[in-house]
Every structure is written in structure tokens, then in C-alpha cells.
Design goal:
Blueprint lengths: L1 E10 L8 E3 L1 E4 L10 E5 L23 H10 L4 E5 L9 E5 L4 H7 L12 E5 L14 E4 L2 E10 L16 H9 L3 E10 L1 E4 L3 E4 L3
Parallel strand pairs: 6-7
Antiparallel strand pairs: 1-2, 1-7, 1-12, 3-11, 4-5, 6-10, 8-9, 8-12, 9-10
Length: 209
């Protein structure tokens, strides 16, 4: 079954900071190399000893450089250290958003919500409206190019999706709608079953190809 076409690839070198768009990327068993390879560790405040995230600072997603992230934390009275490692994922190595899943949200908002709010690795343009919802895909395989993914779970969302990706005023209706109509879920987490190269324009299929 054709789900859609890969319209964008995004990697986030520093967890919670701004992502970078890629035309193609190598997908390893552990995820996209360089994705969430760094994180900010809070030394004080409510997140002391844990990663400092967008939930604690609504401006982090506007900067790419870790030093800029440190400066934003300092403005809020929090000292953070830059950590490096293989990956700093919330849950699974890969996340995906399909535009069709956002249709009801867009209708409610009265505008097309920016997919960047959801910080996926892969953004997919659906082949049509009748595609499976997130919960129906759990345990299924998704294939594009020579990459094979297995869907682990839908993604539960938090306040960060209310932030505008370019810093315009936040919109609390985004999270409110998901809480009321979608059990706060949008998008899917996936594990990598077979590594390979992903390219913008690849078709995304459900099941073996």
C-alpha cells in the first residue's frame, strides 16, 4: 500500500534546538547519524540532572548552535552543559508525520499547521485521504527506498507543538485539539529494521515491497 511521498527530511543535531533540512540521508540501525547527537544538561532548576528541553524554554527551537542554547538557558537562570553522545532520543530513533493526519487539526485551526512544530525526521505527503491512522500502524513495516522501518508507537505530544517554528505567537489550540480529539497523539515513532539511504521524493509504502 502506498502511503505517500517523502517531502522533507530533517535532522536535529542538538536535542530541542532547530533542525536542518536534508535532501537525502543515510539511515543507520541506530537512527540518522548526527541526529540529537548533542543535548543540554541542566545543572540547576526543575530539570537539574536532566536534559533541558523546549518544555522549559520556548525559544530553544529557534537556534541551532549549542552555545546559543546555553545563552537562552542562562537568561532563564539555568546553567546548562553541552553533552555529546551517540543519540539523545526521547523514545525511538525515527519519527514520522504524514500530512493527512493533520487534516482535522488544520480544519479546526483555520490554517495549515506547520509540520515543523512536530519535529519529525520524515515528513510525508499522503497519496490520498484514506491512509491508516497512527495506532493502526503499530507493529507494521514501512519502506522507502532501501530503508525499512517498524512502527513502535504513536507519539504523545506536549506543549512544544504550540510554539511557532519561526517564533511567531504560540497557538495553544494545537495541543488543546489533540488532547480533546486525538488522545494527544500525532505522528509515529519507528525503529530501523534495515538501514539504507532515504531521499526526498521516495515513495513510502506499508508492508513488503
Amino acid at each position: 500500500m502506498l502511503i505517500g511521498t517523502l517531502a522533507a527530511i530533517r535532522r536535529y543535531p542538538v536535542k530541542s534546538l532547530r533542525g536542518e533540512d536534508l535532501g537525502e540521508v543515510e539511515v543507520a540501525l541506530g537512527g540518522i547519524p548526527g541526529d540529537r547527537a548533542y543535548a543540554l544538561l541542566a545543572h540547576d532548576g526543575a530539570r537539574a540532572g536532566k536534559t533541558y528541553r523546549g518544555k522549559e524554554n520556548d525559544r530553544l527551537h529557534l537556534v541551532r548552535d549549542a552555545r546559543a542554547g546555553q545563552a537562552l538557558a542562562t537568561e532563564r537562570g539555568v546553567t546548562v552543559e553541552v553533552l555529546s553522545g551517540e543519540h539523545f532520543f526521547d523514545d525511538a530513533p525515527i519519527s514520522i508525520i504524514v500530512d493527512a493526519w493533520m487534516s482535522d487539526l488544520n480544519a479546526h485551526l483555520g490554517y495549515v499547521a506547520e509540520w515543523q512544530r512536530f519535529r519529525p525526521n520524515f515528513f510525508v505527503r499522503a497519496s490520498g485521504p484514506a491512509i491508516p491512522l497512527e495506532g493502526d500502524l503499530v507493529g507494521e513495516d514501512l519502506v522507502f527506498g532501501d530503508v525499512r522501518l517498524r512502527v513502535r508507537s504513536p507519539i504523545e505530544r506536549c506543549v512544544t507543538i504550540t510554539y511557532h517554528p519561526d517564533g511567531d505567537p504560540s497557538d495553544p489550540r494545537v495541543l488543546r485539539f489533540l488532547a480533546q480529539e486525538r488522545e494527544t497523539l500525532m505522528g509515529i515513532y519507528c525503529d530501523v529494521v534495515a538501514p539504507g539511504t532515504a531521499r526526498v521524493g521516495n515513495a513510502l509504502y506499508l508492508g513488503p515491497q
